[in-house]
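Hi F.,

I've been meaning to write this up properly since the lab meeting, where we talked about keeping a consistent format for the predictions we share between groups. The idea is simple: the sequence comes first, exactly as it goes in, then the structure tokens exactly as they come out, then a line or two of notes. No screenshots and no reformatting. I'm using this chain as the first example so we have something concrete to point to.
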Amino acid sequence: MQIAKNYLMDMDGVLVKGSTAIPGAADFIDRLNEREIPYLVLTNNPLYTPRDLSHRLITAGLFVPSERIFTSAMATAMFISRQRPEGKAYVIGESGLTTVIHDAGYVITESDPDYVILGETSGYNFSQITKAIRLIVDGARFIATNPDPSGPSEDGIVPACGAMAALIEAASGVAPFYVGKPNPLMMRTALNYLGAHSEETVMIGDRLETDIVGAVSSGLETILVLTGVTKRTDADRFPYQPDHIVDSIADVAALFDAENS
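Output, unedited:
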């Protein structure tokens, strides 16, 4: 395993657990910054803006500037702006999603929207879900930022975008187009944002079914870390395999030390 020219990496389970940095993550980020190696932290979480997430990481001791963070909300905004420039959308989500939709030149409205865009929110509203279903039945295109069915909270798991999308699909009869991981669109949009090529980029993730399969489908080299939800034995059950399996991001950081030894 050689030091790559570019890195994509997941955030939760790779760099942090909750509000705590995973051992070795700070060293890895510091080495990337010091050597000016291009990288992006990818997250399916569309709740927060890159600036919000940068603050969270810096608070944990990881100096990741906002321009090094790429969210499923950003990928969604880029996708719709290419598909139907300066359109209209009915959006269910927080500032991390609505901000980039506005920045893409879109009007957020419930009046004859081109798209219904479903993201994450701290409290899904039944009237919003009902409105989304009716708009989709009337012809609006259905997009969801990510397929994750649940997410963590301090009190336990909470329903996430994928669960709400399944509800809307069941009621409307229309399946959503998921933009976030494992859709290779997320990886390719991130590569374009970074100005990188897949042959020169490594993806570091903790989930085989999102991070790794999305990267494999995009032609990236892959590193699975075991500090998230995946165990080493889990990899054998999947038809696609990561190129490397390591205990944690600290093992990737050790590559930089080995190169200089």
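Notes:
The longest helix spans residues 72-83.
The mean pLDDT is 92.

If this format works for you, I'll send the rest the same way.

G.
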